[in-house]
Amino acid sequence: MRLQSKLALFSAASKVIILLLLVVGLPLLVNKVALLNADERLLQKEAKMYKIIEEQGIGTFITGETGDAYGSYNLFREEFISLEEISSGKVVNSIENSLRKVDNEIVKYRVLSSTFDLGGKRYLLEIGRSLATIENNSKTLQGYALYFLAAVVLLTVFTDLAFSKILLRPLTLIVKRLQRVEHPSAFTPKDLKTTTTDFLYLNNTINAMMGQIQEAFQKEKEFIGNVSHELLTPVSILQSRLENLLSDPDTPDAMLEKLVDNLRTLHRLKNIIQALLLISRIENEQYLRNENVDIPQLAQEVAEEIKERAEAREVSLQVEMEADYTLEKANQSLLFTMLFNVVNNAIKYNKPEGTILVKGQPSAQGFELLVKDSGVGITQEQLPHIFSRFKRMHAPDGESHGLGLTIVNTIAHFHGIEVDVQSRHGEETTFRFRFPKANLPESVAFSGNWAQNRV
Amino acid sequence: MHTLIVEDETSLATELMHFLAQEHYICDWASNGREASEKIAVNRYDFILLDLGLPDYDGLDLLQETKAMDHDPAIIILTARGALEDRIRGLGLGADDYLPKPFSLLELQARMQAVLRRKFKLKSSSVAFHGFEIDSSTRRVTFGAQEIVLTKKEFDILHYLLLHKNRILTRLQLTEHIWGNLLEDDYDSNYIDVHIKNLRKKLSAHATTDWLETVRGVGYRLTV
């Protein structure tokens, strides 16, 4: 998952959690606040009542007409005030919830009760506020609070998203640049415009390391060039000299065979040097991958080129192509060498009257090419080593340099083709080339494991 | 054919001159870029064999210099450095062919002939021998009015043998010529024997083929 998505997810998740906590805790909190508020109002009213009694005397409320008590409700019985004379000597001063019967209806009230003495008599003052009203108020409050919070959460999630996107833009840029580079040798260092020092550090480090890799590649390239020149020049001189001797009419016939032997040995030396150089050059990325290669057609071309060898060995060579497949960004001549080597081996290590099947078919991964022979096979012990350098498997004449399959493997790897071999000793061998999926869309490559795709 | 060999390796230059002299080329030798530059300016060469790895000169500069002159010698690049861009640049700068070292002298001569035919538009591309006629541009072999159908490899072998007539060609030389350098694990000379056998069979349906000799333990020779 991309860093930006992770940050956005985290920000959204943390805010949702806060919101949930508030939804759970808010009613309790708001109720408490509403109750405290109500109590405060009751106390204020109590003070007001005392003031009135003090100024106007208790006679305002309790007269001969009303008896010894006074009561007043407002219209919807949301509040009431009562004042009565009591006989008991108990002093009360409390605020609590209690049920009162008003007009044959029981209503729950928050009631402030307070006793006071006046003119030798004791009075009880009660001020009540209906709990329904209090709760109603608190519910309205809760509703508004929730809407507000939700709006705040949404807003911050979006601002976080936008901000992290802006903040992470340099990182996105670095990733995109790296994606475009197929190999370190094709990398051009660029500056990054950002004030975030972490990204600057990252970019500079990548630039520096790519520079080192490029330098190493360049040195290796020069080295390969020098080795090539120093080793192949003497071979070239020897070959020309031997060929001149061979065509010299003064050379006695008895010498000719020896000269041919020498040329064979020299050819062997030349082949080893060239095979090693080829492997090094491929690994050094000196070959271009700028062609689209039609694999079924390539298989046909190889078969065409090699069929006379198969005939000479009385081996039947069959090509079956069940699907079209074009390998993009490839090197035709290297792929030809790869397939030629494998089919040539299949001929060389086959039995008389043997068969070879070159088969192309669609696979879950994309496309695969099988080269199956009815040959001498490879033993289980040898199988893991067949692609290693200088591991001669079963060369009958002892002149094989053991690099043929290493070349095959190197070329396959260079093109992102997977090779594996299955064999039953004495019966058959199958080389399988698994080609990468064609036309990998940019977006898939980007959202997927881009780094792994390019290893 | 007046030929300049630009090559800093004395031994190789000596062998090249020895071989080309036999093939009736008149050869000059320059062992460094400065000397080559002077010789090219003074003489009108038909052919230049150019080694790119000179001690004092970039061979490609020399190629450009030569191309800027009013006469137009055929140029074949010979190099052991084997850098791939050299090949592309060399051909792009107007070289007629490119032959990586080590090469067979016979292959060099075949390439030189092909370049000459292309460059100077030699009219006749067909050669007659022992009643047969081989046309290298249409790739046909005929005996009188009858066409002999050969495979690609058979044609290439016959053509190569004829090109180097009266000379022994080893199986290795023939193998390298018809298969190119595929860097095989090992080469199998038997394939050449099979081709020769088939070739003899096809040709002997029309006339005797005793002119296509087997030189025991060495190779084959076409005598004319």
Automatic annotation (TrEMBL), chain A:
Pfam families: HATPase_c (PF02518), HisKA (PF00512). It is found in: Membrane. It is an enzyme of class 2 (transferase). InterPro entries: HATPase_C_sf, HATPase_dom, His_kinase_dom, HisK_dim/P_dom, HisK_dim/P_sf, Sig_transdc_His_kin-like_C, TCS_sensor_his_kinase. It catalyses: ATP + protein L-histidine = ADP + protein N-phospho-L-histidine. GO terms for cellular component: plasma membrane. The keyword Manganese does not apply. SMART domains: HATPase_c, HisKA. Residues 226-439 form the Histidine kinase domain. Signal peptide: none annotated. Gene3D superfamilies: 1.10.287.130, Histidine kinase-like ATPase, C-terminal domain. The chain crosses the membrane at residues 7-30, 144-168. Its EC number is 2.7.13.3. Keywords: Kinase, Membrane, Phosphoprotein, Transferase, Transmembrane, Transmembrane helix. One of its GO terms (molecular function) is phosphorelay sensor kinase activity. The keyword Cell division does not apply. PANTHER family: SENSOR HISTIDINE KINASE TRCS, SENSOR HISTIDINE KINASE YKOH. This is histidine kinase. It comes from Rufibacter glacialis.
From TrEMBL, chain B:
Gene3D superfamilies: 3.40.50.2300, 6.10.250.690, Winged helix-like DNA-binding domain superfamily/Winged helix DNA-binding domain. Coiled coil: none annotated. Keywords: DNA-binding, Phosphoprotein, Transcription, Transcription regulation, Two-component regulatory system. PROSITE patterns: OMPR_PHOB (PS51755), RESPONSE_REGULATORY (PS50110). CDD domains: trans_reg_C. InterPro entries: CheY-like_superfamily, OmpR/PhoB-type_DNA-bd, Sig_transdc_resp-reg_receiver, WalR-like, WH-like_DNA-bd_sf. Residues 124-224 form the OmpR/PhoB-type domain. One of its GO terms (cellular component) is protein-DNA complex. Pfam families: Response_reg, Trans_reg_C. Residues 2-116 form the Response regulatory domain. It comes from the Bacteria. Residues 124-224 bind DNA. SUPFAM superfamilies: CheY-like (SSF52172). The modification 4-aspartylphosphate is found at D51. One of its GO terms (molecular function) is phosphorelay response regulator activity. One of its GO terms (biological process) is regulation of DNA-templated transcription. PANTHER family: REGULATOR OF RPOS, TWO-COMPONENT RESPONSE REGULATOR ORR33. This is Response regulator transcription factor.
